[in-house]
Each structure stands twice: as structure tokens, then as C-alpha cells.
Amino acid sequence: MCSLLNFPTPPPDGTITVCEANSELVNTDNNNEDILNRYKDMMNIPDITVERSPNTLVHESAKSAFIEHKQTVLKKIIATWHENGCMGVLEEIANMKGEVSPWICKTVCGILMSIRWLNSLHGSIFPHLLLSSEDLVCEFSHTLDWQSSPVKVFAWHPHVMKFAAALNDDSVKIYTVNNSLVPTLKHKLQKYVADIAWRPFSSSEVALACQSCVLVWHVDPKSLATRPSTACVQVLSQTGHSPVTSLCWCPQGGALITASPADTAMMVWDVSMERCEPLRRFGGGGVSFINWSPDGSKVFAATPSTVFRVWHTQKWEVEKWSNPCSRCQAACWSPDGSTLLFATYTEPKVYSLRFGHLTGTTETSIGGSKAAVCVVDLTQVVLGSTEEYNVGGCVQSMVWDPLGQRLAVLFRESNSSNLVAVFKTKVHPVLEIISCGFVRGPTNTSAASICFQPTFDSGALLTVVWSNGKVSHIPLYFLSPRALEHGGLISGSGVAPGNGHTPSLLFSQD
């Protein structure tokens, strides 16, 4: 089992990580503009820094813009129904003393008391259901300190060198390599953006997980418009399915799955028809996070409780897993979908689950490992001799590169959140995880979110969004097994190769 004790000493304060070469992370002085600009020019990726600004958005009711006038009881009820739904109607009637019969008011008050009692009972079992939409998104987002982060969500396109960034004013900007045009996406329903997913095999479609719905934008890459109109967006909504905190496309791009921690069903969308089919399993209090395996055979689904599930997509059969400690916080798949790594909310450990294949076929068998095995110990340790560094702790986010050879872990603890741990990995014939090093960013910042660029072909490209709004792209140069077969060669740390852009058994199964 790998431990942080096996890691090299973290880079000192005042330095910044620029790349990995010869199996070591290369760091330079934070003020060494020449080297920083050199690596930036080699990567040829848009360099962005989003300034932190106070959230001054105020969500008000539209009726505040109109002069109040008397309405009949029926018109009040109809207007309240359209604006606030069934609960709003009951509350409106309960406040209509003198306008409706007293027995009607008493009856409605009794119904409201019963509903609130049932809600409080349900909330005592699943406390997250008592949170507001914004607090729910913040609680289950993989972005550290989502509410105050200048960049709330960051997502690379799976095939094209472009990315989407959701900012703290609920707008989403699209950046493309070698293109100065930056479209800005904005919609009246685009609030509390919690996740972004580009549609595979489409250069224009991107889905946003929002407070009350999912927005699917169609952004024509050849368009010169910097502010696409609302005619370019589809609104996907389902009663009771909000806020949406996680979504992902099928690797073939055919279906979109969305999840909400307040809904026990995942929704599988046919986006072109704007129709959905629920995948519901009771227990868990909702679905907080989903992740489709790269081979398309499985979908991981975490819940706000101690339960998580793995769906097998061929027949949509499901395996249920549980643990006595806490909910699952982060998870990622190996490239072939045979291995799942995950971490819980309260334990500084990474666990592994293995899934086999049916003999003589490429189909995965139902029933993976009977118990999850702890493969990485992230317990806080002290590293360094001349200067001591406390590193480690519970996981906030965890991502695996598309080749399955680098694993990046973002810590939740404040004294470790300024570092990102990078591991070297090997999936076959057995899972191996060993230490590589720590990535450090700009001075006085912490890492907010991490992801890998999917098409980098000189190793892996790690993107880190920092708390000051700076987005760093760190190339991890190494030879893939395919490159080794063809006698590939990586140069030393002095010159980076090209631009990289060309063609403890604690868990048991229930």
C-alpha cells in the first residue's frame, strides 16, 4: 500500500511546478518569468486568470416590479401556483384569513403542519435535505470552497483543445486554442452551475448542471457571436430533480445522465427528444455524484449516505455497496473500466474495486470484488528535514489520466490544499500505485479543482484551478506503453518534447 511517507519533500513556498520530466516534477521560482513564459508558450493553451469578485446577484420575484393591486381569491391562487407550486398555494390559502371560510384555513393549516412534520422526519434521516439549493451544491461539489471560488467548474472537451469555465457570476466562458474569440453563455435559468460536461463526438454541445434544470448549449465553433442567444439552448427539467449537482455523457455521446442529491433517481436523457427515463433505487437519500466508465460499460453513482452503486449499462443491473463510516466523496475509473478508485468523506484513504470480464468476451461480468481494498494511505505526515511540511488528509477530488498512468489527488484540509499529490499508476496485470511528487501553485493560493486534458499525447496534462482564479496547465511527460513499443524517447527536463497536441477491508457488498 502506498503512503505519503514515500513521497519526496514538497517544493518550498515561493516555487511553482511547471512539468514532470524523467519521472520527477520540475519546479521553478515563482518570479522566474522567463521559464514560466517558456513553458506557457510551448503548451499554447489560453492562459486565464479570473479575478475574485463579490457575489452581488440578488434573486428577486418578478412581482416586485409591479404595483400591487387587489385580486380575486381564485386569481391569487392561480398566480401562486405558477410561481411557487403546490406548497405555495397551501401557504397562500393559510394566510387568507377573512377572505376564505375559517374551516378551509384550519384544514389547510393542518395539511401544512403534517407536510412539515413529514419533511422534518425525512430530514432527520437525511439531514442534507434540509439544506438550501446553494448549500447542497456547495456540500457535494468537487470544487473546494465552491461558493467563493472565482472558477466554480472547469471542463475540457473530450476531443478538441478547448474548455469551458463556469465563473462566480453564473456565466460560462468557452476558450479554444488558437482562437481569440471567447463565447459567453448566460441564461436566466443558469444559476448555481455545479457541473459541466461536453458531449463526445460533438464540437458544439455542452451540458450545464444548474439549480432547477440542465441546460444543453449548442455553441457553433464557426460562429463569430460572443454571446450566443437563448435560441441555442435546450432546457431539460424534471419535477423533483433539483438541484442538479452532477452529469455525464455516455462515452459514445448517445445519452446524458443527471443526478441530484434531493432525488433518489438518476435521469437518463434522450437530449434530442428532451425525454428522460428514471433509474431509481430507494435508499441513500439521493444521488450526489455520477461517473460513467470510459469503456461505457458501467456508471458509478454515489449517494449522500454511506451507500454507493455501480450500474452495468448493458442490462442496467446494479450492484450496491455500503460502508459504516461516511459517504463517498470522490471516484474515478481506469481507462478500460476494470478498476474503480474511490475515497470517502471522513477517511484519508483511497480504496480500489476490481471488475472482471466474461470469458471470451469484452463484456464485464456482474459482481466485482467482494470487498474494497485500501490501496493508498493519505494520513497526514510531516515531510522535510530543514523545513517541515504537514501534508495529507481527506480527499476533496481525485482524477485519473486517460492512459491510466497518473493519479492526482486534491486534499480538503487547509494545510494541504495548496498541494496536489501526483501518483504513478499501472492497472495491469495488477494495480500498482507509487509516489511521484507534489504540485505547488502560486504563492498564498490553494487548489480549487483538478482535471486531466483527454487528448494530450506526450503523457498527461494536469489542469489545476487555484483559489485566486489562476488556471495552470502542467504537462506530465512520460512514455505510454504504446510509445515504448515503438521505441519512443522523451527528452530531459531542460527541453520538453513538442507541444503535446498533435495527432483494510472496510467495505462490503450488500
Word description of this protein:
By secondary structure, the chain is mainly beta. It is 14% helix and 35% strand. Strands 1, 16, 17, 18, 19, 20, 21, 22, 23 and 33 form a 10-stranded mixed beta sheet that branches. The protein is globular, with a radius of gyration of 25 Å. The two termini are 25 Å apart. Mean pLDDT is 84; it is low at 55-62 and 489-510.
β-strand percent reads 25-35%
Distance between the termini: 25 Å
Biggest sheet details: 10 strands, mixed
| Structural class label | mainly beta
Helix content: 10-25%
Mean pLDDT: 84
Alpha carbon gyration radius = 25 Å
The 3D shape can be described as globular
Count of helical segments?
5
**Topology, number of strands:** 33
Low-confidence runs of at least 5 consecutive residues: 55-62, 489-510
Chain-wise SSE layout:
Layout: E1 2-3, E2 15-21, E3 24-29, H1 33-43, H2 73-94, H3 102-125, H4 133-140, E4 151-156, E5 162-167, E6 172-176, E7 184-185, E8 195-198, E9 205-209, E10 214-218, E11 233-236, E12 246-249, E13 256-259, E14 265-270, E15 275-280, E16 289-292, E17 298-302, E18 307-312, E19 317-322, E20 328-333, E21 339-344, E22 349-354, E23 371-377, E24 381-383, E25 389-391, E26 395-400, E27 406-411, E28 419-426, E29 432-440, E30 447-453, E31 459-466, E32 471-477, H5 481-485, E33 507-509
Parallel strand pairs: 1-23
Antiparallel strand pairs: 2-3, 4-5, 5-6, 6-7, 8-9, 9-10, 10-11, 12-13, 13-14, 14-15, 16-17, 17-18, 18-19, 19-33, 20-21, 21-22, 22-23, 23-33, 24-25, 26-27, 27-28, 28-29, 30-31, 31-32
Helix pairs in contact: 2-3
